[in-house]
Amino acid sequence: MSAILLDGAATAAQIREELKPRVQRLREAGIVPHLSVVIIGDDPASHTYVRMKAKACRGIGIESQTYALPAETTQQEAEELIARLNADENVHGILIQHPVPKHLDEIRLLNCLSPDKDVDGISPASLGALVAGVAKFISCTPLGIVELLDRYRIPIEGQRAVVVGRSIILGKPLALLLLQRNATVTVCHTRTRDLPSVTREADILVAACGRAELITGDMIRPGAVVVDAGYNRVEGRSGDVGDVHFESASQVASYITPVPGGVGPMTIAMLLSNTVRAAEMRLESP
Ligand code: NAP
Fold it and tell me: Which numbered atom of ligand 1 lies nearest the CA of 268?
């Protein structure tokens, strides 16, 4: 392996340490930062993510409450809960764990979130604000990726960035963020013709497609920075597998994120950071 590891776990730990004194200051001012997490249904992976988020909150003094609703929850019941949390002065951030059961309209639910509490940054209002360059909160995984690049002093401006994936939680907001930072951005998806010829143009290549090891070393320009946002369960393999074939990619890339320990911990760190900021906003304008 010749690539340098972009260590998301260590960087996230550093960010958590930086957040602690801010949480302390808020508590001294009588504000206990609070994140409410709404999870609907029984998806085991989602429950694991929610537990990880709650633990991370506790670790830096953020209070968190999880609302685990049954899979048969109706749209009205879910919307009523969001309305209650919106109105609760002690709640600074609300996260609706994705995905929700299919019978629910997820976009409509996200539309119910107060933009001041959408610390996950994925409601249509927050995404629209990102397009306009005035977002209060930016989606945590894209934000974490850009933060990781910044902390390793990897230049973004003027670079050719290729994002493989266009979901509303990851690919699209990341493309917008990179564009805001003056990268030249290409977004790929399942209808992209000749994907390898596009990925080979990237100075910064982000794999966010949810296809285990789709991006192989031969699809990467030598010296490119490779970020792997993927987490895939593959039968017969232990642990999670990224969207990048790490063994071949790390021979070609200059920098690369591992899975696990790359983008995942950064996502959680950004959720904490957004929640602290939401509480600070309350302090600034009570
Ligand atoms: P998603 O909603 O399934 O979207 C996947 C995107 O990738 C789609 O836009 C799809 O294109 C595109 N795609 C799929 N196969 C492709 C192919 N063969 N070639 C080119 N494009 C392809 O997934 P997501 O929610 O964005 O998640 C993506 C990955 O990131 C997953 O592995 C997920 O587990 C991981 N993730 C990680 C974190 C974290 O905290 N680290 C957070 C969120 C997600 P179409 O639009 O044409 O279908």
Answer: 40
Residues with CB under 6 A from ligand 1: 141, 164-167, 169-171, 188-192, 195, 208-211, 214, 229-232, 243, 263-264, 267
Is the confidence at residue 99, as pLDDT, over 70? yes
CB 168 within 8 Å of CB 127: yes
Please report which residue ranges of the chain form alpha helices under DSSP H. Answer: 8-28, 44-59, 75-87, 106-111, 124-132, 140-151, 171-180, 195-199, 246-252, 263-284
Token digits of residue 206: 């982000």
Closest approach atom of ligand 1 to CA 144:
40
Q: What is the pLDDT of residue 69?
A: 98
Helix, strand, coil percentages (3-state) for the chain, rounded to 5, are: 45, 15, 40
Q: Is the pLDDT reported for residue 1 higher than 70?
A: no
Kindly list the structural domains of the chain, giving each domain's residue range(s) and its CATH number in brackets, ordered by start.
31-115 (3.40.50.10860), 140-264 (3.40.50.720)
Chain centroid to Cα 60, Å, comes to: 19
Q: What is the pLDDT of residue 239?
A: 85
Burial of 201 (0-12, 13-18, 19+ CB in 10 A): middle
Is 20 catalytic? The answer is: no
- Of residues 137, 103, 132, the one with CA closest to residue 122: 137
Catalytic residue chosen out of the listed positions 7, 53, 117, 159: 53
Could you tell me the two tokens for 109?
A: 């639910």
Amino acid identity of residue 12, one-letter, is: A
What pTM was computed for the model? Answer: 0.97
> What is the spatial distance between Cα 141 and Cα 172, in angstroms, rounded to a whole number?
11
Q: How many angstroms separate the CA atoms of 37 and 54, rounded? A: 8
The span from the CA of 117 to the CA of 278, in Å, is 7
What would you report as the CA-atom Rg of the chain, rounded to the nearest whole angstrom? 19
